[in-house]
Known about the structure:
Layout: H1 2-6, E1 45-48, H2 51-54, H3 61-65, E2 69-72, H4 79-84, H5 95-100, H6 115-119, E3 121-123, E4 128-132, E5 139-143, E6 148-150, H7 162-179, E7 184-186, E8 192-195, H8 207-219
Parallel strand pairs: 1-2
Antiparallel strand pairs: 3-6, 4-5, 7-8
Helix pairs in contact: 7-8
Amino acid sequence: xxxxxxxxxxxxxxxxxxxxxxxxxxxxxxxxxxxxxxxxxxxxxxxxxxxxxxxxxxxxxxxxxxxxxxxxxxxxxxxxxxxxxxxxxxxxxxxxxxxxxxxxxxxxxxxxxxxxxxxxxxxxxxxxxxxxxxxxxxxxxxxxxxxxxxxxxxxxxxxxxxxxxxxxxxxxxxxxxxxxxxxxxxxxxxxxxxxxxxxxxxxxxxxxxxxxxxxxxxxxx
Length: 221
């Protein structure tokens, strides 16, 4: 919609791009203008998903453009979100009620932390590293011409450390019986006979990170 109101056609190839793997240069937003094909009264109401983000900055011009009732959806509202909608909460379906209703299951936090994820790391000058092109995944070796220090937040985005990913996957595997004791089958003497591995959903930071996880999970038995 932002593209339409700017008077530009969105390239179909943009649907194939992963925004997390692209670098955007800071720029001033192009203001939207009146479009006679999409007048301000075009909609009866507008539903804004992830409204804790999409009602601000660049995209704010779109909901501001339409003279319409707005319905915001978010699981993580903040004070700005409540302020934008004048604290008009139509429905509040919290975690506790969702668990009681059986819509969600309760969770426990199990943290796996390594020295690299906590403190980052360093690549020394002259060391050869395996570089990748973000979109094509093409790999090539290149020696760094200066020391490179990176933080844990850069892992799996700017820096890929396969040993760290492997360590975390192995730690998760080894800790599953402790996390899911009800899935252990024991014999009459109380000894462990088998363990039923639960279905596991892993969130990846980028498509490339997902491919690394898939490959390393297949290799960890």
